[in-house]
Design brief:
This protein is of the alpha+beta class. The protein has a single domain, classed as endopeptidase fold (from Nostoc punctiforme) (Alpha-Beta Complex), CATH 3.90.1720. It has eight helices and eight strands; from the N terminus they run E-H-E-E-E-H-E-H-E-H-E-H-H-E-H-H. Helix 3 crosses helix 5. It starts with 9 loop residues before the first strand and ends with a helix. The C terminus is likely disordered.
Length: 205
């Protein structure tokens, strides 16, 4: 990026998570990295949260663009989902483009499919991208790239969830259980300095 991340006016949020589903465990087994999923949010409370993942809780093979909820679905089933949340400063124009790009996916969700081939390809350093198929971290990187926020020099099809941590570690605002994230925000707004993750969690992520 040619402009410092700190010289911006709006905020976009990246959520990295590690669930305990079988696909997530397999991803972590192959990558040897702590996170298996990436999502992008337009607000700090993660109420406008988007990614590519399973559309139905009990069907891991029906995947695509989804609007996520940290209190329901896969996230709601497991109170011990570990996560990190990163705050990315963007300009007003970049924020508008990001919202518009996400709206394109929302209005055409049936057109976009999960990039299973690309998920395998990224494990071997091969980018597979056609503009209609995405896996989670590829989608998040794509949205940033379209807005002019170039976080990475490599192809979106090569981006893994942990790449966001490497790039944005100085912009992390939370690390801990996803189920406790909004409580953390309420505590922070109340002026309290709260450590919301245990040593066990800190070592795991």
């Amino acid at each position: 990026m040619t402009e410092s991340l700190d010289n911006r006016t709006r905020r976009i949020y990246v959520l990295l998570s590690r669930t305990h589903t079988t696909p997530a465990r397999l991803i972590r087994f192959f990558t040897k990295e702590p996170y298996s999923h990436a999502s992008i949010a337009l607000d700090v409370e993660l109420r406008e949260l988007y990614s590519f993942a399973r559309k139905h809780i009990h069907n891991p093979f029906d995947c695509g663009f989804i609007e996520e909820d940290i209190e329901t679905g896969i996230f709601g089933l497991d109170k011990n989902v570990y996560c990190s949340v990163y705050e990315v400063p963007v300009t007003e124009e970049q924020y508008r483009i990001i919202r518009d790009e996400i709206n394109v996916f929302r209005k055409n969700k049936d057109v976009y499919q999960y990039n299973y081939t690309g998920l395998v390809g990224v494990m071997f350093g091969k980018s597979v991208a056609d503009g209609k198929h995405f896996f989670c971290s590829q989608f998040v990187s794509h949205i940033f790239y379209k807005s002019g926020v170039h976080l990475f020099t490599k192809s979106n099809g090569l981006i893994r969830p942990y790449d966001f941590h490497i790039r944005l570690r100085e912009h992390r605002i939370y690390r801990g259980r996803l189920s406790e994230y909004r409580s953390f925000l309420r505590s922070r707004r109340g002026g309290m300095e709260v450590e919301t993750y245990t040593e066990e969690v800190a070592q795991a992520i």
